[in-house]
Amino acid sequence: MTLRLPDPRMERVLLTESQIDAVVGELADQVAADYSGRDPVLVTVLRGGLFFLSDLCRRIDLPLTVDFMAVTSYGPGAAGSVRITKDLDDPVEGRDVLVVEDIIDTGLTLNYLLRVLRQRRPASLAVCTLLDKDVRRLVDLPIVYRGFSVPDRFLVGYGLDLEGQWRELPYVATLKDEIWERG
Ligand code: 5GP
Questions:
Q1: How close is the Cα of 1 to the center of ligand 1, in Å?
Q2: Which in 28, 98, 114, 138 has the greatest CB count within 10 A?
Q3: What pLDDT, in 10s, does the model give residues 41-78?
Q4: For the whole prediction, is pTM greater than 0.70?
């Protein structure tokens, strides 16, 4: 069945709802096995990570808690800096922290967040990302769980937005090249 895309700026569906669902289930099983006997805190970055976190945590067969951060990035690339606009509600000292991300691109935002979290002395700190734009990576990150490796295209859906829109789509779609040219 071909899905009708809701907007002519979208090119095609890259990952269908059922592909995402299957991988979320696999990641949840791996997390449950690895954290068996512990009660991790799943931390995500608003707003994009919310959708993946919500599906993932409901399929992890373990006691767990969730917490949220929000950040703003200033300036492009490596010269850019990150500011926390919403911090976690609870301390993470001594906790097993799993950072849950929708997508990792250059990795600079997450690298900054991991530095901040490490200073709070968690028992462990690991990363689970649904999408990995690995060709763009500028820094090494402790990514333990990875859903899909994705190409260097601008993606929307399943948490990813274009100017605030389309986060709610159950699939991931690419935009047409003429809509998004990397600067
Ligand atoms: P990084 O610091 O890894 O370069 O940036 C990561 C952030 O950039 C993601 O959390 C996401 O907000 C945004 N981002 C990276 N690639 C895409 C993409 O293809 N589509 C959308 N909508 N956002 C993206």
A1: 29
A2: 98
A3: 999 999 999 999 999 999 999 999 999 999 988 766 55
A4: yes
Q: Residue 41 has which token pair?
A: 């805190």
| SS3 category, 25 | helix
18-152 has which CATH code?
3.40.50.2020
Task: For residue 153, say if its preceding peptide bond is cis, omega within 30 degrees of 0.
Answer: no
Q: Which residues make Cβ contacts (< 8 Å) with residue 176, sequence separation at least 6? A: 9, 10, 11
123-171 pLDDT, tens digit each: 999 999 999 999 999 999 999 999 999 999 999 999 999 999 999 999 9
N- to C-terminal Cα distance for the chain? 35
* CB of 103 sitting under 6 A from ligand 1: yes
- Ligand 1 neighbour 107 (Cβ under 6 A): yes
Rg over alpha carbons for the chain, rounded to the nearest Å, is 16
Provide long-range contacts, Cβ within 8 A and 24+ apart, for 80-86. 80/108, 81/112, 82/108, 82/109, 82/112, 82/113, 84/113, 84/116, 86/46
